[in-house]
Amino acid sequence: MVTRIDRLGIERALSHDGRPSSDFDLNPEARPKSISLKPAGVLLPIIERDSGLQLILTKRSSTIKHHPGQIAFPGGRVDPSDASHIEAALREADEEIGLAPKNVDVLGELPTHETVSNYIMHPVVGWITQDFTPRLEAAEVSEMFEVPLMHVLDMSNYTVQSRIWRGQVRKFYTVPYGPYYIWGATARVLRSFAQKVIL
User: Measured in Å, how far apart are the chain's first and last C-alpha atoms?
Assistant: First the structure.
C-alpha cells in the first residue's frame, strides 16, 4: 500500500509503460467482433491541499444522453480542431468545470481505456498549479468534488461488482468514496493509475 506520494513520484510512475484496459476486461464474452472506436481525452486533475493531494472528479448531469448521473473525469471526444487528445482533455476541463489549460501542468498519461460506448479514452494526468473558481457547465456537469488521491491509490478500496445489463450479467470495478459511487470506466482507469504508482 502506498502511504505517501508527491508530484515527482507521480511523474516517475507515469513514465513506466502500462497495459491498455477495457470495459470488456471482466466481460470478454460481451465484446463485439467489430468496433469502430472514437478518440476521447479525459483529465485526471490533481490539486494540493493542506490535507494532502486531492483528485477532482465530476458527476454528470442527470439530463445528459450518455451515462447520466455517473461519476466521471472532465473530458470528452477529440474534436477535429483539437491538435491532440491532450488538448481535447484540457479544452473539455475548461468547458466543463472552468479549469483553464494554463493552470494545468501535464505530468503524463495512463494507458488507454476502451469503453462499452465505443470510445478509446486517453487519460491525461494534470497538476493544478493554483486554485481556481469552478464554473460548471450545467448541461453536462451537476457537481464537482474532490477525493483524496490516497483513497484511489489504495488497491484495497477496489471491488468487483455486477449487475444485469441488457439481459446479461456484467461485472465492473468500483471504488466508492463517501456518497459517491465511482464505478465502470472511471474506476477502471483509477485502478490502472493505482497499479502504476505501486510498481
Answer: 10
pTM: 0.94
Task: Tally Cβ neighbours within 10 Å of residue 182.
Answer: 21
Express each pLDDT in 141-159 by its tens digit.
999 999 999 999 999 999 9
pLDDT on residue 129 = 97
Whether residue 153 contacts residue 198, with contact meaning beta carbons closer than 8 Å, is answered with: yes
d(C-alpha 45, C-alpha 12), whole Å = 17
CA distance 77 to 96: 13
Give the Cα separation of 57 and 102 in Å (integer).
19
Q: Is there a contact between 138 and 46 (Cβ–Cβ < 8 Å)?
A: no
Q: Is 29 helix (H, G, I), strand (E, B) or coil?
A: helix
Task: Identify the CATH homologous superfamily for domain 7-22+38-148.
Answer: Nucleoside Triphosphate Pyrophosphohydrolase (3.90.79.10)
According to the model, what pLDDT value does residue 199 have?
62
Residue ranges of domains in the chain: 7-22+38-148
**Whether 178 contacts 169, CB under 8 Å:** no
**Length of the chain measured in residues:** 199
Span 51-62, pLDDT tens digits? 999 999 999 987
Q: What is the predicted pLDDT for the residue at 1? A: 62
